[in-house]
Each structure stands twice: as structure tokens, then as C-alpha cells.
Amino acid sequence: MARMAEPLLELRKVSAGYGEGIVLDHVSVALPEGGSLALLGRNGVGKTTLILTVMGYLKLATGAVFFRGRDISRLPPHRRARLGLGWVPQERDIFPSLTVEENLTVAARRGRWDLAAVYGLFPRLKERRGNMGNQLSGGEQQMLTIARTLMTNPAVLLLDEPLEGLAPIIVEELTAAIRKMADDEGIALVLVEQHAEVALGLTDQAVVIERGLIAHRAGSRELLADTATLDRHIGLDLGGQRDH
Ligand SMILES: Nc1ncnc2c1ncn2[C@@H]1O[C@H](COP(=O)(O)OP(=O)(O)O)[C@@H](O)[C@H]1O
Ligand SMILES: [Mg+2]
Fold first, then answer.
1. Which is it for the CA torsion 66, 104, 174, 93, positive or negative?
2. Strand-pair category, 60-67 with 70-71
3. What residue owns the CA closest to ligand 1's atom 10?
4. What angle, rounded to 10 degrees, do the helices at 100-107 and 138-150 form?
């Protein structure tokens, strides 16, 4: 008899925060292998906190985090990364005095994503491969941050506001690259985004967080059409009139 497919990543009743302060309040959410989940919500509701908790930077007050059925709640961040959790932090994180190519190769772990594959996804990085990290534009640094995480060949990418503050042309390039990873390559995604329309266009499932709680769950396509719910929970930001 076929077993129920095990989620790739699962949070069960997770409460966590900073010191004595609890931010996440009994959050339960699951991501199937190859699935994609948008984490939506206003500023300060706990989206980054959730990512940090999954990656192992914050202590759990209740609950547990599972990866392919294994309780990883007590593993330190580097062990979680080795298991296949690929974190792209909100602050771009590259080595400024290494070249683009060196930034990529220092992160490399065996697998489908090697230099050629990553350059195929981000042709701009190939053009810039000899440039130092600190010679890149903000958008190129963001691409390099994502590409570097891909070089670790993760099973899931956790992207924390990857499009924040970027010019529209770069947003388009990055969106296309993220779509390719998710649709063609089957990498699972957790995508934190302020711009609901973009995030919902890139994912299958969505949760809306409000003050550390999951306030709403829906299919991404269904939520995209549900302007009343979007407006109620996050203020209607469909991302059309981004102002930078
Ligand atoms: N290092 C920290 N120490 C204490 N509180 C923090 C820290 N980082 C974030 N917080 C608080 O946790 C809450 C959730 O923050 P965060 O997860 O960063 O929100 P989001 O990513 O949704 O904008 C906020 O109230 C914020 O002030
Ligand atoms: Mg955040």
C-alpha cells in the first residue's frame, strides 16, 4: 500500500521568538517535495522570524520542525543547510572581495547546480563573473546571493524578500529565474514577499501571517483572485504600482 507522501518541510505548532519574547504562536504549516509556499503579511508580523526558526537560528518554545520526516528541531543551522535547506537571507550576503565566480565556487556542493547551470539561469552573472562582489549592483548582488545558495544544491530555497528595493527590470529577471527553478527544476520554495501578486504568481500555496499567527491559508491562485481577503489581511498591495 502506498504511504502518504511525507512533507519535505513541516512546522508543527511552532512557537518561537527572541529571548523571552514569543513572536510565532503555534504555527503549523507543511511544504510537499517540490511544492512552493508564499509567506505573506505586513511588516513585523513574523515572516523573517519563521524563516530563522526553520533555519535553526531561534530556539523553539513549543513544537517541532521536521525535514523529510526527521525532527530537526535541535540541529544547528549548518547541519540544516547540509540537509538541503537553502536560505537566502533578507540582507544580501556575498563576499565583497571575492569575484562572482569565487563567490559561487566556495559554496559549491555536488549536484545538478554547478557553475554552468547557475550561469544558464543568471546570464548576467556570467557576464560579470570576473567582477568583485562589491562592484555589483544591488540586483546583481541579489542574483549572486540566490545563485550561491543554489550552488549548495538545496532541496528547498527559503527566499526572504528577494525582490525588495530592486529596479523593475531586475525584478522581472529575478522573477523569471525563480519561476524557472520552481517549475522546471522542481526545487521547493518558501517565498516571503511584500508584493502579494508577485509571490502568488510564483507559488502553489499561500499563508498569511498576522501577529505571529496564521490568519489565512489558501491556494495561491485562489487567493490572488480574492481581493477582499488580501485587502483585509495585508492591505491591497498587488504590486502593480511599486514605487522604485
Ligand atoms: N532580533 C530581534 N530581537 C527582538 N525582536 C525582534 C528581533 N527581530 C525581530 N523582532 C520582532 O519580531 C517581530 C517579527 O519580526 P519579523 O519576523 O522580522 O517580521 P517580518 O519579517 O514579518 O517583517 C517584530 O515585532 C519584530 O520587532
Ligand atoms: Mg522580514
1. positive
2. antiparallel
3. 18
4. 30
Which residues make Cβ contacts (< 8 Å) with residue 2, sequence separation at least 6?
Answer: none
Assigned C-alpha cell, 182? 520552481
Cell numbers for 43:
511588516
pLDDT digits (tens, 9 = 90+) for 138-191: 999 999 999 999 999 999 999 999 999 999 999 999 999 999 998 888 899 999
**Residue written as grid cell 527544476:** 185
The model's pTM: 0.93
For residue range 27-62, what is the model confidence (pLDDT) as tens digits? 999 999 999 999 999 999 999 999 999 999 999 999
Residue with cell 511544492: 35
List alpha helices for the chain, DSSP H: 47-55, 77-83, 100-107, 115-121, 123-127, 138-150, 168-183, 196-202, 220-225, 227-234
Q: Which of 25, 39, 42, 48 to mutate to test the pocket of ligand 1 (most atoms within 8 A of CB)?
A: 48
In angstroms and rounded to an integer, the radius of gyration of the C-alpha atoms of the chain is 18
Q: Residues enclosing ligand 1, CB less than 6 A?
A: 18, 21, 23, 41, 43-49
Give the CA angle between residues 62, 217, 234 to the nearest 5°.
100
Give the span between the Cα atoms of 35 and 30, in whole angstroms. Answer: 10
Q: Is residue 206 a contact partner of residue 199, using CB atoms and an 8 Å limit?
A: yes
Residues 74-132 have pLDDT tens digits of: 999 999 999 999 999 988 889 999 999 999 999 899 999 999 999 999 999 999 999 99
Beta bridge partners of 88: 159
